[in-house]
Design a protein that fits this description.
D-Maltodextrin-Binding Protein, domain 2; alpha/beta; 11 strands; 6-stranded mixed sheet
């Protein structure tokens, strides 16, 4: 009986420590989206799976990057490309949209003279997800070479780049384009597609306990919908 009581005491202590750790955890978010920051922030903070977690949704990559470097939050929700420039985290869940975990960026133009063959001499607009040098390298690796890569802070800023002729092309996710084209009357043409890339990922610091990772997987479907996605898929095995 004494051994059993000691076991219960240790189990209770471990539970308290786990709850305490979760309550002090921080989730920082930066993903390109047509959904306003305040709406995504509200949805995440209302989710019972994240109760006690400090949540910040950023509207600019440079602010997110600066915060991650200074505070090193335990959890981050970020584009799948981010792990190429930050090795402190591992991906544990993949956001999915309509049953798909990946997509291909569309390269669009409004002028017929800006063809695929002329991309290397033109400029492309893209939402900043990796900073200046990281974004340029990412575009080149996944689409091809452009004379200039113009970074914007919001998905909604992409179409005006073409309309105002401040860029010859834009690089945009298909689902975001379907939303934006309803707001703009400018006629676009598809020039090319990127390589296949993954939707955003939910990451944790590499020493995060499995119990906390499992708890994050309970984010509700309504929250995912408010973020613009339909499912949260567990990433199994070792994560790079």
């Amino acid at each position: 009986m004494h051994v059993k009581n000691r076991y219960c005491e240790w189990l209770f202590l471990l539970t308290i420590l786990w709850v305490s750790s979760l309550s002090s955890a921080e989730l920082q978010v930066y993903c390109t989206s047509t959904i306003p920051v305040n709406e995504r922030d509200k949805a995440l903070k209302a989710d019972s799976a994240l109760t006690g977690t400090n949540i910040t949704v950023f509207g600019k990559f440079r602010e997110f990057e600066s915060s991650v470097k200074s505070s090193k939050p335990k959890y981050i929700l970020i584009s799948s490309s981010f792990l190429s420039i930050n090795k402190d985290y591992k991906a544990v869940y993949q956001l999915e949209l309509n049953g798909k975990s990946s997509f291909k960026y569309l390269i669009l133009s409004t002028k017929p003279e800006w063809t695929k063959e002329k991309m290397a001499s033109g400029s492309v607009g893209v939402v900043d997800e990796l900073g200046r040098s990281g974004t340029k390298k990412y575009v080149q690796n996944n689409v091809g070479k452009f004379k200039k890569v113009k970074r914007v802070t919001k998905t909604d800023d992409l179409m005006p780049l073409l309309v105002l002729e401040n860029a010859n092309y834009i690089m945009i996710r298909p689902d975001n384009y379907e939303i934006l084209k309803k707001k703009f009357t400018a006629k676009t043409q598809k020039i090319a597609e990127s390589k296949t890339v993954g939707y955003p990922i939910l990451c944790v610091l590499k020493d995060t306990p499995q119990g906390e990772i499992d708890a994050l997987g309970k984010i509700t479907p309504s929250t995912l919908k408010a973020l613009g996605y339909s499912n949260l898929k567990k990433i199994s095995g070792d994560n790079k």
